[in-house]
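I am still getting used to backbone structure tokens and would like to learn alongside you. Would you supply a protein for us yourself, any chain you care to pick? Start from the sequence, derive the backbone structure tokens from it, and show both lines together. Go ahead whenever you are ready, and we will take it from there.
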Amino acid sequence: MVKTICLALVGLIILALSLYTVIRVVRYFYKFPMPEFAANLIDNPLRRLIQPPEEMPHRHGVKPGMKVLEVGPGNGTYTIATARAVGDGGQVVSIDIEPKMIERVNKRILVEGISNIDARVADVFDLPFEEGTFDLVYMIAVIGEIPTPERALREFYRVLKPTGNLAFSELLMDPDYPLAKNLVQLAESVGFQLKNKLGGFGSYTLEFEKI
């Protein structure tokens, strides 16, 4: 009985790793945004354990009064946590290319009764904001979904204030997980400088400053 259970567990682990590998290969060649129906699957207890919503604003350098741009809100869990961190004197603008995702976030904003979030559809390659608008741009497990991330980073650089910061949070369970050294190289290539790194291989946050 014990042997059977152990074999079943090993089989499940092998199956999960195989599926993960296949998805990573597919995502490597075909980049596309997360579909709306997958939002709740990704916002699961394991992810919230690794990336606690109440801690992520601190990891990203969020402070009261900031104007923050969030790219890829998922179902809004981290959006709401960030909105609470910036307080009534701050604002969170949350963008996604998928209209249904923004609809989901806006419904949640209404339910939560939060007034300092502006969720809208926008293209990271052509952001509808003036230069120097934001104190911070952040994304959680999103940069790997963008086909040409250097183009997006140039737009983030443009809309950040001269003292603005850029933050990435990544976790290994994400099929689009990038190595930290690759993100550092990418961000530095468009004019950012690494300011802080938290975490390790399985889950990390990189914070950059505009130079």
Observations:
- Residues 15-29 have pLDDT under 50 and may be disordered.
